[in-house]
Design brief:
- Helix content is 33%, strand content 16%.
- It is built from twelve helices and 13 strands.
- The protein has helices at 23-37, 69-76, 94-103, 122-135, 147-157, 202-210, 214-217, 231-240, 277-284, 315-327, 337-343, 346-355, and strands at 6-12, 40-45, 60-61, 83-87, 106-111, 141-144, 165-167, 190-193, 222-225, 247-251, 265-268, 289-291, 307-309.
- The protein has a seven-stranded parallel β-sheet with strand order 3-2-1-4-5-6-7, with helices on both faces. A six-stranded parallel β-sheet has the order 10-9-8-11-12-13, with helices on both faces.
- The longest helix is centred in the N-terminal third of the chain and has 15 residues, at 23-37.
């Protein structure tokens, strides 16, 4: 008699967009492939369906019309599963208890969620702690994508979760990212790769650049890749501060991995982060990162070694770093790709997740 085929469901509140192919898409593709190679059936629950990339080979179950994913899953999911993963789904809600009751599966909740720069207000902290007490029993294992994230899980829902919480770092496909082998020491070119929303702090970057000497602003080039609800406001700020010659908004592109190597430094002035795949991708391209200590950034970027750290919203500090780097007074000498190859590969990420079902 052959071995019983394992069945896995992955519930992922992540919209599939052909013009935005990021690190999580590559992980999903690699994980699905590994499961199939080991005779594991996978049902993918997404908010929408798509055929771009390897999604054409997926078994995707999605609503026909735009609706909340969790109620759709509870209405649709059938049969028994050995393991259910959730990604980008709010933790510790009644959804998990209903899902457990309906499927009897082992439920593993992955936390990708950033937290506010100054923390949650008291009322929300109390509510989260109560939800942790009520609903965490229905989640068999919590996964944080950084040490920062696991600490925030304990802060939000209670330290009693320590025995069933662990870290699996996000990873990337390093070999697909071309490295910059000859960074400019002076007059470097900068990249921003980010969703354009207030919490990403790009408004701080624009303000910092406005404070630079005119001699630097004359030749400084910063390309911004990404889109989002704050895009119009950022473009207006650039226009109002007469910085249109500095900033170029490139929109979302599907081949960002091929673009990093055209730049010398990444700028990421974020206020909120969980564990940034764009930082990993930039470092894999041998492009150092100038960023804040938000989220798990300090678990990857070491000040003065493979990038520079400044306090979120510290506009003058950011201005000083950009000026020093642009003039060549500060520079990163090491190959930043090495750390990513050894510690943050997508192969390692897939292996660790697959161990949870094998």
């Amino acid at each position: 008699m052959g071995l019983k085929t394992k069945k896995v469901a992955i519930i992922c509140n992540y919209k599939l967009l052909p013009n935005r192919v990021g690190g999580m898409d590559y992980f999903f593709w690699a994980f699905d492939k590994t499961c199939k190679e080991h005779n594991v059936e996978v049902d993918w629950f997404f908010p929408n369906t798509s055929k771009h990339g390897d999604y054409s080979n997926f078994k995707i179950i999605s609503p026909e019309h735009e609706t909340s994913l969790e109620p759709f899953v509870l209405h649709t999911i059938e049969g028994s599963y050995d393991v259910i993963f959730t990604h980008f789904v709010e933790l510790c809600t009644s959804f998990y208890c209903q899902l457990k009751k309906k499927t009897k599966a082992k439920i593993i909740a992955v936390d990708h969620n950033p937290r506010p720069l100054h923390g949650y207000p008291l009322k929300k902290r109390i509510k989260k702690r109560l939800k942790g007490w009520l609903y965490s029993r229905c989640i068999d294992q919590f996964i944080g994508v950084s040490k920062y994230t696991t600490n925030e899980i304990f802060r939000d829902f209670g330290s009693h979760l320590k025995t069933k919480t662990s870290v699996i770092y996000n990873g990337i496909i390093v070999k697909d990212i071309k490295p910059n082998l000859n960074r400019n020491v002076t007059c470097p070119k900068f990249i921003v790769a980010s969703h354009l929303r207030v919490s990403k702090g790009i408004q701080d970057l624009i303000k910092a650049v406005s404070l630079l000497p005119e001699s630097i602003k004359t030749n400084l080039k910063i390309d911004v890749y990404g889109s989002g609800p704050y895009e119009a406001a950022l473009k207006k700020q650039v226009d109002d501060l007469l910085l249109n010659a500095v900033f170029s908004f490139k929109g979302s592109v599907a081949n960002l991995n091929a673009v990093y190597c055209d730049y010398d430094y990444m700028l990421q002035p974020t206020h909120m982060e969980c564990f940034s795949l764009s930082i990993l991708e930039s470092l894999a391209a041998n492009v150092p990162v100038i960023t804040t200590p938000a989220g798990g950034n300090l678990e990857v970027v070491t000040h003065g070694v493979n990038g520079y750290i400044f306090k979120a919203e510290a506009i003058l500090d950011l201005k000083d770093i950009i000026e020093a780097v642009y003039l060549g007074k500060e520079q990163i000498a090491i190959n930043t790709r090495t750390l990513i190859e050894t510690s943050f590969s997508i192969d390692n990420m897939v292996t660790q997740y697959f161990k949870l079902i094998s």
